[in-house]
Specification:
With 432 residues, the chain is an alpha+beta fold. Helix content is 28%, strand content 18%. Among the domains are: 5-171, Glutaredoxin, CATH 3.40.30; 330-430, Pdz3 Domain (Roll), CATH 2.30.42. The protein has helices at residues 5-10, 20-27, 43-53, 70-79, 81-90, 144-160, 165-168, 190-193, 206-218, 256-259, 279-287, 342-348, 367-374, 397-407; strands spanning 39-40, 57-62, 92-96, 115-120, 126-130, 238-240, 248-251, 268-271, 274-275, 295-300, 307-310, 335-336, 357-358, 361-362, 382-386, 389-390, 413-420, 423-430. The chain has a 5-stranded mixed beta sheet, with helices on both faces. Strands 13, 15, 16, 17 and 18 form a 5-stranded antiparallel beta sheet that branches. It has a 4-stranded antiparallel beta sheet with strand order 9-8-10-11. Strand 10 and strand 11 form a beta hairpin. Helix 5 (81-90) packs parallel to helix 6 (144-160). 39% of the residues are buried.
Length: 432
């Protein structure tokens, strides 16, 4: 009896392949061990099987070395019977765990995520995106129930394909001038990345944004506006039920959404001519609009009314302190400043409400860290303010990092107010 293609594909799954587990083992991808559902890091095979079966492709992008989203990833990879049943019966499922060979013209999503999902047809048409992250945390938006809703909506889109191909056209981004991450002009440390993939040289998703930012920096074109990527529905005055993915749970008074006439309980079925299956789909539409005055059309489930939303200048600005790509932006400090403990705050005798950051690590292996050490910064120093302005309860290592990068430039000095050994002092930290 000749082996079928499906049986051959089974040999490519995590538990049976001789080649695939080598990458799995090098990355220590424990969430994938024993999960026989997935084609592992092999888009070519997934595309071929999708063409053979006529099924859509469900691709998950997982940054294995990152701890954020690990629990959700485990549920998707092998914990949820709901995902397993849908994925096995109706999709060709691909687990992508490194970005080195990923076609960046096809797979465009918010690369600062630690887990992301995309749904595509075998011909490269994009059906949907799933996965959203914010300062509220990596799992604030993602859930198995929410993913299930998106998967079911994708199956409806796939059943209507290719009649709806024109509506789906906007879901695929414009072609990039390069194909993969290693071809990106702004990608640093290429020599290390070209080596066999291990945990310490894996190209993380956020490295794609890092490379974009670095290229703009070298060209002198990096502006704050370039950093407001994938804005949230809240930027236009909408809160979307995180499980439903379409239903409006709140409309901010006097917002663009409010002025457009949108109401709580309505479901956003379409946006800018594209079918909406998730919050990530909404973000994709918003990402591809400018930060100025925009007119964005909406369709609401069960309504024939034409809705149109008008944005105000600067509407994309949002809290980006959570983004992994923020750390590689210039100026780079290469110092880790976590918040001081409550006991430490008491010992410092700070006024009520004032906070401090503690110097826990100085990367003296980098020029920025060496510059900080040469300027006098030491481990266990307490930073209590900048330029005479004390820290309040909003400060943490992320908001501190964001403040520096948004308000200072390389070549300037950062005036840190310190307490060392009970003595207050000012340190002018050079920014490389």
């Amino acid at each position: 009896m000749k082996p079928t293609l499906s049986l051959a594909l089974l040999c490519l799954t995590l538990s049976a392949s001789a080649a695939v587990p080598s990458l799995l083992d090098r990355l220590q991808d424990d969430n994938a061990r024993g999960a026989d559902l997935w084609i592992y890091n092999d888009l070519k095979t997934a595309m071929a099987e999708a063409k053979r079966t006529g099924k859509p492709i469900f691709v998950t992008f997982r940054c294995v070395p990152c701890s954020a989203c690990k629990a959700f990833d485990a549920e998707v990879a092998k914990g949820s019977n709901v995902v397993r049943d849908l994925a096995q019966k109706h999709f060709i499922s691909l687990r992508q765990v490194e970005m080195k060979g990923v076609d960046l013209s096809l797979f465009q999503f918010d690369y600062d995520l630690n887990w992301a999902g995309m749904f595509i047809n075998a011909d490269g048409v994009v059906y949907a995106r799933y996965g959203t992250q914010s300062a509220d945390g990596p799992d604030a938006y993602n859930s198995i129930a929410g993913l299930e809703n998106t998967m079911k909506r994708v199956l409806k889109l796939h059943a209507d394909y290719p009649k709806n191909k024109l509506q789906l056209a906007g879901k695929r981004g414009a072609p990039k001038p390069y194909k993969t991450a290693l071809e990106m002009p702004g990608l640093e440390n290429k020599a290390a990345f070209r080596q066999t993939t291990h945990r310490n040289n894996c190209i993380h998703c956020h490295n794609i944004h890092d490379a974009d930012n670095h290229k703009l920096h070298l060209e002198g074109k990096l502006t704050k506006e370039k950093l407001w990527r994938y804005p949230f529905p809240e930027n236009i005055g909408l809160s979307i039920d995180v499980v439903d993915g379409q239903r409006i749970s709140k409309v901010q008074p006097n917002s663009a959404a409010d002025r457009a006439g949108l109401k709580v309980g309505q479901r956003i079925a379409g946006m800018d001519g594209q079918p909406i299956t998730s919050i990530a789909d909404i973000q994709w539409v918003l990402h591809n609009r400018s930060n100025g005055v925009e007119s964005i059309p909406f369709t609401i489930s069960g309504s024939s009314r034409a809705y149109r939303m008008r944005t105000a200048p600067g509407w994309k600005k949002t809290d980006i302190s959570w983004r992994g790509s923020l750390w590689a932006l210039h100026p780079r400090i290469r110092v880790y400043f976590p918040p001081a403990s409550a006991n430490e705050i008491r010992r410092l005798n700070l006024p009520a409400g004032q906070q401090a950051l503690k110097v826990k690590w100085i990367n003296t292996g980098s020029k920025e860290g060496r510059a900080a050490y040469s300027a006098g910064l030491r481990l266990n120093d307490y930073v209590v303010g900048i330029a005479g302005k004390p820290f309040d309860n909003s400060i943490n290592h992320r908001t501190f990092n964001l403040h520096v990068k948004m308000n200072y430039k390389s070549g300037q000095k950062l005036p840190l107010d310190l307490i060392r050994g009970g003595r207050k002092m000012r340190l002018e930290l050079p920014l490389q």
